[in-house]
Design brief:
InterPro entries: AraC-bd, AraC_XylS_family_regulators, Homeodomain-like_sf, HTH-like, HTH_AraC. The chain is of the alpha+beta class. The chain has two domains: about 150 residues, Jelly Rolls, CATH 2.60.120.10; about 100 residues, Orthogonal Bundle (Arc Repressor Mutant, subunit A), CATH 1.10.10.60. The chain has ten helices and twelve strands. The strands form three sheets. A six-stranded antiparallel beta sheet has the order 1-2-9-4-7-11. β1 and β2 form a beta hairpin. α2 packs antiparallel against α3 and α7 crosses α10. The longest helix has 18 residues. The radius of gyration is 18 Å and the shape is globular. It starts with 8 loop residues before the first strand and ends in a 9-residue tail after the last helix.
């Protein structure tokens, strides 16, 4: 994986009320390693082109292309040409998005059918919400833009996972346990025994449910937890321990692969003014 250079830049903004984060980035040489997010990740290409692997295929964007990652979609990414790429991504926590979508009909966990779409109205909705987060001074407008985005995302939504899938209940319980105990030194043997599953059975069922092995799931939720801790002002070393990483160096290596920034650099950006939490 190539490292970020002076030509690569990243800017983040947070909306704590709705559990969302906006990223705007310009990449020339930096390449993301394969990783997954615990959130929905939706965005669009502003200038240039980017290429990435996801769901067993390579994809390429053009200006205006919309990118749609469901939670735990494994992917990588890099600029397609030396001209680089400028793009925006919004990371949307599943619970608030599901609550908003439930008002429109679906009361199940959604997944996106396509990874790349040519949808100008959706790109416009993404930009409108991201623009409000950039400004950071109008929570009412941000809430309205968020709902507009949620409604526009509906056209790309499909059902994600089914309760009748084999092992669904056991895997749901296991995922909840991993979230609760992520700071502990978990092992595949202990998790399998706790759910009454064989180790191979656990891995197969986890792949069916989430599309990735349990180790990648655990890594994604630990990174998301560390990111939240950093945004609250917790020092990187403490954030690493709180999320279950071996040490700060372990967190830094995986954090840069997933987000392009070191934890310290992200913490500095997360300290910029952002929409206040609703009380």
């Amino acid at each position: 994986m190539q490292q970020a250079t002076a030509d690569d830049w990243f800017r983040t903004r947070r909306d704590d009320t709705r559990g969302a984060e906006a990223l705007q980035a310009g990449l020339s040489r930096h390449a993301y390693g394969r990783h997954a997010h615990a959130t929905y990740a939706v965005g669009f290409t502003e200038r240039g082109s980017q290429s990435f692997w996801c769901r067993g295929a390579r994809h390429r964007t053009q200006p205006g292309s919309v990118i749609l990652f469901s939670p735990f979609d494994l992917h990588d990414g890099h600029a397609t040409t030396d001209a680089g790429v400028v793009y925006r991504m919004l990371y949307l926590a599943p619970e608030p998005l599901s609550a908003a979508l439930a008002e429109l009909g679906p009361r199940h966990e959604i997944g996106f059918r396509d990874v790349v779409a040519e949808d100008p109205p959706l790109a416009a909705a993404l930009f409108a919400y991201a623009h409000e987060l950039d400004a950071g001074d109008d929570p009412f407008a941000a809430g309205e833009r968020y709902l507009g985005l949620a409604a526009t995302l509906m056209r790309h939504a499909g059902r994600r996972g089914r309760a009748e899938d084999a092992g669904h209940g056991a895997i749901a319980g296991l995922a909840a346990r991993m979230r609760e105990e992520m700071a502990e030194r978990l092992t595949i043997e202990a998790l399998a025994e706790g759910e009454g599953l064989g180790r191979f059975q656990l891995i197969r069922a986890f792949r069916r449910r989430f599309g990735l092995p349990p180790s990648e799931y655990l890594r994604a939720i630990r990174l998301e937890a560390a990111k939240g801790a950093l945004a609250r002002g917790i020092p990187p070393a403490e954030a690493a321990a709180e999320a279950g990483f071996t040490d700060q160096a372990h967190l830094t290596r995986l954090f840069k692969r997933a987000y392009g920034l070191t934890p310290a650099a992200y913490a500095r950006q997360a300290g910029v003014p952002r929409l206040p939490r609703r009380t």
